[in-house]
Write a structure and sequence with these properties.
Layout (H helix, E strand, L loop, with lengths): L1 E7 L19 H15 L10 E6 L2 H10 L6 E7 L11 H11 L5 E6 L3 H9 L17 E6 L10 E6 L4
Parallel strand pairs: 1-4, 2-3, 2-4
Antiparallel strand pairs: 1-5, 5-6
Helix pairs in contact: 1-2, 3-4
Length: 171
């Protein structure tokens, strides 16, 4: 089974005086959330069973740091692509925009992962879901959450896709 793993970045610090939103790093809590994701990604009975993935990561500091702490160097990730096109600090990035970027890197031979921002990840998950997703029942995408959808053995498209499982770090 091929899968799509949609990850919202972990908790980031507020922008300091003169600091760009793009450069915001993870907080201590965000690093702990990312470390929990790493445990799951390294476990072949947990999130790790959905890899290996080709990962698409927003170029912002908090998404790159989430990726580095949670996934870099694990067997879960086979290839990495970064893109400033999916950073929504300069323009509104829709779920369809994320889907188009994923389609541009889809090897159609393995699973995919995107590490990006809200509300883009929420919109993507809701747009492609075959039915309700319990982890999103309150209308929010939890920080550092990884939601898994089952892909067909064809290029990724608008779906619908079956929701499989959610991995949500405790705060």
């Amino acid at each position: 089974m091929r899968s799509l793993v949609i990850v919202r970045h972990a908790k980031a610090a507020s922008a300091g005086k003169g600091q760009r939103d793009y450069d915001r790093p993870l907080t201590k809590r965000g690093r702990a959330q990312s470390e929990r994701l790493r445990v799951w990604a390294s476990d072949p009975q947990a999130l790790g069973r959905f890899g290996p993935v080709t990962a698409l990561v927003s170029g912002s500091a908090r998404t790159r740091e989430t990726y580095a702490v949670a996934f870099a160097g694990t067997p879960f990730v086979h290839a990495l692509e970064t893109s400033d096109l999916i950073y929504n600090g300069k323009r509104d990035v829709s779920g369809r925009d994320l889907l188009a970027e994923l389609a541009s890197i889809d090897p159609v031979t393995e699973s995919l992962m995107v590490v990006a921002h809200n509300p883009s990840v929420l919109e993507l998950a809701l747009d492609i879901a075959e039915g309700p997703v319990a982890a999103l029942a309150d209308g929010r995408y939890p920080l550092a959450a990884a939601l898994v959808f089952e892909l067909r053995d064809e290029p990724i498209g608008p779906g619908p896709y079956r929701f499989v499982e959610a991995f949500v770090p405790e705060d």
